[in-house]
Structures are given as structure tokens and as C-alpha cells.
Amino acid sequence: MDYLASVSAHILLYFIFIAGLGKYILGKSSVWSIGHIAFWGLGGLVVGSLTVDFGVNAWIALLASVLFGIIISFLIGLASLRLDGDYFVILSVSLSELIRVIAIEYRGPGGFNGIIRPTFFGVSLENDWLFIVLALCPFVIATIIITLRLEQLHLNRIFLLVKENEILAKSFRYNPVYYKILIFCIGSFFATLSGGLYSLFIRGTDPSTTTLYQGVLLFAISLLSGINTLKGVLLGALLFVAAPRMLEYIITAPGSATYSYNIIQLVYGILLLIVVLLTSRVPVYQK
Amino acid sequence: MDNLIHGLTIGSIIAFVAFGYALIYSILRFINFAHGEIIMVGAYICYFLYHTLGISSFFLSCFFAMLITGMVGVGLEKIAFKPLRNRSRLSMLLSSLAVSLILQSLASLIFGTSPRILTDFDPTITVLSKTFYVREIVVMIVLPFLAIAFFLSLKYTQIGLAIRAIASNQARAAHIGIPINTIISISFFIASSLACLAGIALGMEGGLTPSMGFKYSIWAFAVSVIAGLGSMKGVLIGGLLYGILLNYAIAYGSGLFADALSLVAVALILLIRGKGFFQIKLREF
């Protein structure tokens, strides 16, 4: 696989994911969805099982996975968003573990293999760059347009009111739980979509991308880089995807691959700590 | 019976860790993700003292390891959390994540990722024609004593009073002249040494790996949430019950199944009973 294509695809995919998490869930509500990576895993799981086990067309599988993600997030939101922030965290963590375990029990630790990429009006997307331009870019552009459009709606102001002051929102007869569930569904929609697209891109699923550790890291990065702005989302995607790979180029440690991986992790952690300590405000970008 | 005893042991270990969580949460109001790594650091320090430095008595090296780990915890608090105390809780959460990344990679760099064996002995004792591990008995005996000592000192000693005062209202505690920084350092010291004890117990059972702490920190966090964040009584009961549940799930299912089942149980409990079982009221701890 072309290295540059792989990196750009990852940046675009995580852009969609962080848009859902950082721009919507963290930006427009106070829901701490630490285990949001669950929906990424869910997208991959549904797309994988529908295409590989049932032979469904990949686009239809993607649509099904997104619908499934919305339904699941609606049910979870309905059940749990009445709870306080810190209590929702543990539910979110449980969900991400649960989805990972289901995926591993269903298909083994290697995940799915041999997902066939769809065609774009007769054009084969087997080439990575074609896939990026014809399949990923439209979704990224749609994400940006939807996001910018939502900013102008009255709904956006209600979201921010609910985030700022729930009691005030109640006094205007806006039910905070309802709006929290709505924003959670939107955020989960983007997460499932990016997870499904990722499984199409790598022609399989990769359980190592859905571990809770990855999820927590993504949560941290979307918090750090910026909530409720698209600039922050882009910075987050670059930080998550490009920064470790750039460190990989700079640091070529002697010895085994795990050794250099650990050095990269160390440098990454130190950088994260320094940034958090030095920036007078977290997140970096905020409206 | 074996399952029950093993479950109680795991539960006690989780309770050790959850004590630390609850203590730090009740004072600083943030979820300390680095606490799981402290378990691992404590176990590795004990390994270093016992094997590399060659301290002859294992219990002596355990004792020193607890002291040193406590110091490490206090040091981390000074470096990573103290400068952020006046900022948002999110900053502290992020910096605890960064600390956890750093500690884990440091441990892998120094000791390697392959498991290390803490002790070459694992004595057993036979009572009524049943065999028990001594370490399990020790953990189960130490925990209640420690818990009682903990409750009493929180209720009746000066430091315990000060900790409760800060937990209840930090600004007012500072106003009446309680040395906040010292008390927070002491709390981190206690929490870290308890985590070290948990780490040593885990290490005796399954060996040391740099990622051994993460899973237990999630479980301990779950327990302290079920208990009602910040409640010490709840942590003890919740930890033991959680350990038993976990162990039965492992015995009759698989490890993965146990992970999922126990967390789903937590989720269900939370859904049924909004804020955990032992909510703290402001006046009692």
C-alpha cells in the first residue's frame, strides 16, 4: 500500500471521527464520551459482517452500519444521558469494551479480511488514491458542509444553551436530555461512518484500532486540539495520525520495532504533557 | 470455594486501587488515569529492589517499594497536576493521560515488554485438606485491617479531618489555614503506596508487564463509580463484590467475556440506581 496514500486516508478518516467527537459531542454538549471509539468499531463490525458473511454491496453495508450506529447511540443515550458526566464516562468505557469483545468473539482477534471495495458509478476504487478522491473526499466535504450549515441554525444555539446552563435551558422549555441525545446520535453517526469507511479502505477490520487505549487517546487529542471548531478538528487529526509517523522518521532507534515504538510513545507523552502544562487554556481552539 | 477465595483476592486488590482513586477524586475532582500505571511502577520498583539491588528480605523490599512509590506519586503530583490545579478539570485529565503514556513507555524501555517474574517462591498452606496460597490469605487479612485503619484515621486524626475538609470545600479549608498542598501530597502518597501494594500482589500472581496496570485501573474506576464517587465504604464492598463476579465470569466464560460482563453489570447498576450505592453526604465522608 502506498505510504502517502495510507497517511492521507487516515488523516481524512480521523478527521470525520474527530469532527463527530470534538466538534459535536464535546463542542456542543458536556457529554464525556471517552469510549467513543466503540462506534468506530461498530461501523467496521457491521460493514465487515454484511459484506463478507452476507455478500451485501459495500455502499448498502455502509448505510446499514450508519443506521445501526444511530439506533444504538439513541438507545444508549436514552438510557444513560440522564446521568451526571462522570457516571456517563463509565458507561461509555463499558460500551467500547463490549463492542471490542463482541467483535473478537465473532471473528477472532484478526478481524475481518477480504472486504471488497465498492465501485463509484462503474469506476473501480481498487486504487488507493481513487478511493481517497472518490469515496473519502465527498464524505469529508459533506461533513464540513453539514457542520457549517448547522452553525447557522437555531438548533445550534439551543445546543450551546443546554451546554452552558441546563437549568436556564429548562426554563425556556428545552429538555436538556433530548438535546444531549440528539447531539450524541450525530456524533455517533460520524464515528460509525468513519469506522465503516476505514474497514473499506483497509479491506478488513483491525481490532487494534478499537482498543480503549486508542479511544482514550483520541478523546484526549480532540479535547486538546479544539472543541467546536473545524480548525481544531483538523489539528486533532494531524496530531493523531501524522505526529507519530513523523516521529517515526526522526527517531530511528537501534534495535527492535517495539523498542522504537516505545521511544515514540515516550516522546509523544512528554510532548502532550508539555503542551498541556504550557497552554494557558485547553482546548487550543475554542469558540 | 477456590473461586470464591480467588475472587475475594482480586476484589481486595481492586479495592486497594479504588481507594486511591476515591481519595484523589474526592479531593481534586478529577479522574486520575495515571493511577493504573502507579500499580505497575510499584511492582517494578519492588522487582528492582529485590532482584537488581538484591535486598535479601522480600518483605523489606515490599516496604521500601511502597515508600518509594509513594514518593513517585507525590513527585508526579508536583510536576503534572499541581500547576493545573486552578485550570479546568479537563487539563488535569489530559495531563494524567500523558503521564500514563510516559510511565508505560519508560517501563517498557527499561525492563522490556516480556513478562518478569517477581518472586520465585509462591508458598502454599494446607488447612483442613485444602490448599491456599499464602499471598491470597495475606491480602485478604491485610485489606480489612487497612480499611478499618483508613476509616478511623479519616474520621478521627488531624490529617483525616483535613482531607475531609478539603474534599468538602477547598476554598474554605484554605481560608481556615489547612495546608492544602501538604495534605494533597499526603493523599497522593497514601494512594500510591496502596497501588504499589496492589501491584506487588498482582506481580506475585501473574508476573510483571508494562501494561499490567491499565485493566485494573479501569476496573477500579468502575468500582469507585458504582460505590458513588468518593465513598470509601462503598469502595470496599464494591471492590470485593466486583472481584467475585469477575472471577466467576472468568471461571465459567473467558477473560474477554469477564471484562465485558463485569462492565455491563456496572452499567446496569448505574442505570437502575443513578448515582451509585453509597452517595457521600457532605458532612460525613
Give the low-confidence spans of chain B: 281-285
Average pLDDT number of chain B: 81
Report the CATH C-level class of chain A: Mainly Alpha
Give the overall form of chain B: globular
Q: Give the number of DSSP strands of chain B.
A: 2
Order of strands, widest sheet of chain B? 1-2
CATH architecture designation of chain B: Orthogonal Bundle
Order of helices and strands of chain A: HHHHEEHHHHHEHHE
Class by SSE composition of chain A: mainly alpha
CATH class assignment of chain B: Mainly Alpha
Tell me what portion of residues of chain A adopts beta-strand conformation: under 5%
Our count of helices of chain B gives 11
As a percent range, the share of helical residues of chain B equals over 70%
Strand arrangement, major sheet of chain A: 1-2
CATH topology of chain A: ABC transporter involved in vitamin B12 uptake, BtuC
Structure write-up:
With 287 residues, chain A is an all-alpha fold. Chain A has one domain (3-286): ABC transporter involved in vitamin B12 uptake, BtuC, CATH 1.10.3470. Helix content of chain A is 75%, strand content 3%. Chain A has eleven helices and four strands, in the order ααααββαααααβααβ. Chain A has helices spanning 3-28, 37-54, 58-80, 85-107, 128-151, 154-164, 166-171, 176-201, 212-225, 230-250, 257-278, and strands at residues 119-120, 123-124, 226-227, 285-286. In chain A, the strands form two sheets. Chain A has a two-stranded antiparallel sheet. In chain A, β1 (119-120) and β2 form a beta hairpin. In chain A, α1 runs parallel beside α5 and α10 packs across α11. Chain A is globular, with a radius of gyration of 19 Å. The model of chain A has no long low-confidence stretch (mean pLDDT 83). Chain B is mainly alpha-helical. Chain B has one domain: ABC transporter involved in vitamin B12 uptake, BtuC (Orthogonal Bundle), CATH 1.10.3470. Helix content of chain B is 75%, strand content 3%. A two-stranded antiparallel ribbon of chain B has the order 1-2. In chain B, α1 (2-28) runs antiparallel to α10 (232-252), α3 packs across α8 and α9 crosses α10. Chain B is globular. Residues 281-285 of chain B have low confidence and may be disordered.
